[in-house]
Amino acid sequence: MIVEHTVAGLRSAGTPQPRAVVTTMGALHDGHASLIRKARSRVGDSGSVVVTVFVNPTQFAAGEDLDRYPRTLQTDVAVAEASGADVVFAPDAEEVYGPSRGFRETSVTVDAGPLGEILEGAARPGHFRGVLTVVAKLFGMTQPNLALFGEKDYQQLVLIRRMVDDLDLPVEVIGAPTVRDTDGLALSSRNHYLTAEQRLLATAIPRALDTVARRLEAGGDVAEAVAQGLELLTGTPDVDVDYLTVTDPDLGPAPPGGAARALVAARVGSTRLIDNRAVTVSP
Question: What is the third-level CATH fold of 189-277?
Answer without folding.
Answer: Pantoate--beta-alanine Ligase; Chain: A,domain 2 (3.30.1300)
